[in-house]
Amino acid sequence: MVRVMIVLAVLGLGDATYLTIVHYGHLVIACAGGHNGHSSCQTVQNSKYSEVGGVPVALLGLIGYVGIIASLLLPEQEWTRLATLGLTLFGFGFSAFLTWQETFTITGHPIYCEWCVGSATILTVLLCLSLVRYLRPPGPSQRPLQPPLQPQ
User: Fold this and answer.
1) Tens digits of per-residue pLDDT, 134-145?
2) Would you state the CATH architecture of domain 2-135?
3) What is the spatial distance between Cα 94 and Cα 119, in angstroms, rounded to a whole number?
4) What is the rounded radius of gyration, in angstroms, for the C-alpha atoms of the chain?
């Protein structure tokens, strides 16, 4: 399961990296969707929701995916599984907020950027897998969460 999660997180990292490069390079974003003669992705990228405190949301996503990958590469322990769960939960929640803005707030709504939807989908799957990974009992390849009870 961890390998699948790493692959998904690397895909998300690629998505966020591309959007960060587009932002700082002032490039035209590749986007299949259109809205009133404009790129749906460009409309989303130019909205007030594309930055938080002057920091591009794409860069925040890039940092988040790096954190998720790091938590997956660390030796498997309860705290690393909890870190992965926390990071994916935060990413999912923030992504859900941004999808809400695309649906109900951004001028011309509903308007969807496929890069954003892709990242939201990846984070949704990562959250589900992180939850299963955190809640499942330790297997033979995992250390027990607590030492076994000693007979008295």
Assistant:
1) 998 666 655 555
2) Up-down Bundle (1.20)
3) 11
4) 18
